[in-house]
Amino acid sequence: MPPPPIIAGSKMDDKEPVMNPLAGWSLFLGIASIYLSIITGIVGLVLRILAIMQIRASQGRQRGIGLAVAGIITSIILSIFIASTYYGMLKSVRSKARQTVCMDNQRQMATAIAVYIQDHDGNYPTGDFFALINSPQSSPSNTTILRCPESKLANGYGYNNNLRGNNVKMVADPATTILTADGTGLPFYTSADIAPKRHKYFFIASFVDGHVKAKSAEDKISLEIN
Prior knowledge:
The protein is of the alpha+beta class. The chain is built from 5 helices and 6 strands, in the order H-E-H-H-E-H-H-E-E-E-E. It has helices at 11-14, 21-32, 38-57, 65-119, 129-133, and strands at 18-19, 62-63, 157-159, 178-182, 203-207, 212-215.
């Protein structure tokens, strides 16, 4: 049964409108969603809509529509903020996953080259290293390890041309001498041939001693063998 109309001058008209309880709770839940979860914000949004409907249907006996509207605005702002935060986190996770794939690719390349030099008295190939990596004797996933996930190139890597045909014992500092790195599918003659910021602020490289690591252009690296 609908509530009786309020008549001007009546006792009912003299009563102060009461605060709608849902309006306050809706604003509280909207702010709390910053620290709790997006589900809290959704619940708060539903309460705001219900509060506005109740206030309008109360024929002046309830107030709090300002709180409800403020809660809706707060929810919109917070939803944009939360969405942008989650997007940034997702992008960071995706970038980290691509970095992991790239490191695994170069680890497999370094392993294939290490197997070769063990079978050839410590000597590096005299020809193209990538021909060795693509051979059936190398990694079973050799058709994909040359594809860097951050590059559109069919071969997104390069190798240290100074090593070609030389013996591994000639390398003075194996821990800082690059074996493979992010590149354009061509051998490295100078450090300028390396793609220095393919992974945002750094590149991935494998080294003569076998380790693989992310490096920046400012880090100590070398293409020289002695």
